[in-house]
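Hi there, hope your week has been kind to you so far. Would you mind checking whether the tokens look sensible for this chain? I owe you a coffee for this, so here goes:
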Amino acid sequence: MQQQLSFDAVSNGACAPQASTAAAIENDFGIALTGRARTIFDAMKSIVESPACRLKHYRDDFFHGDRAYLSRTHGTGRYVWVVRDCGTHLIQTGVHERNYDELDAVLHSYGNACDVYEIDAARATIKKIDAVKAREIGKRLEYVTRDGVVSKECRAIAGMDITLSPWGHGQSPQGIVRFTGTDANLSKGDLIALRQIAEWEVIARTHSLFTRTQSATLDGVDIFDLIDQIQ
């Protein structure tokens, strides 16, 4: 049977954590969450803290890793959340084809030994699904990156140029991504997606998961700054 939880119902229901627990988490990791990301995290936490939850060990995967991921993505779009006995894995979908590769690898690794949830930020729901549905969701791309152009709904929203910093002082090259805007009016979600696309495209360029993205700009302005400017 599918389980569907409303963020509001979860956040305000009997399963809501005590204030002392929430404060302890803030103190331990110092990762601030606001708005939709905070609401999503609280809803996920009610599942994790339920006695019926599969998660028994490596709970920092959730309280630190998933929390940090929600902070970076600002609780936008759609996610697939994989909960196993020893840890969790949160993946935003629809942004880049590499997100699907990551999801497929996680699901393949754990088979039936995990619970899988779809998190829809726009609809404010968390729904328990199976691996087949998760892969179906993961294959749906809202953004498509081809030949240096990022498109959304078949419309170009940004051009993209990638260069690598030189080797220096024992530091390996890092990606420098410059997006050029079109006449498209970009939302906060679009900017967050562009930042993720930058990171994945740098990895694709260097064929290494360890290559970091030094900077990602849109028309010369740091994308993180642009994200912060939008409430």
About this structure: The helical segments are 7-12, 19-29, 35-48, 60-73, 97-110, 131-139, 188-206, 223-229. The first helix runs from residue 7 to 12.
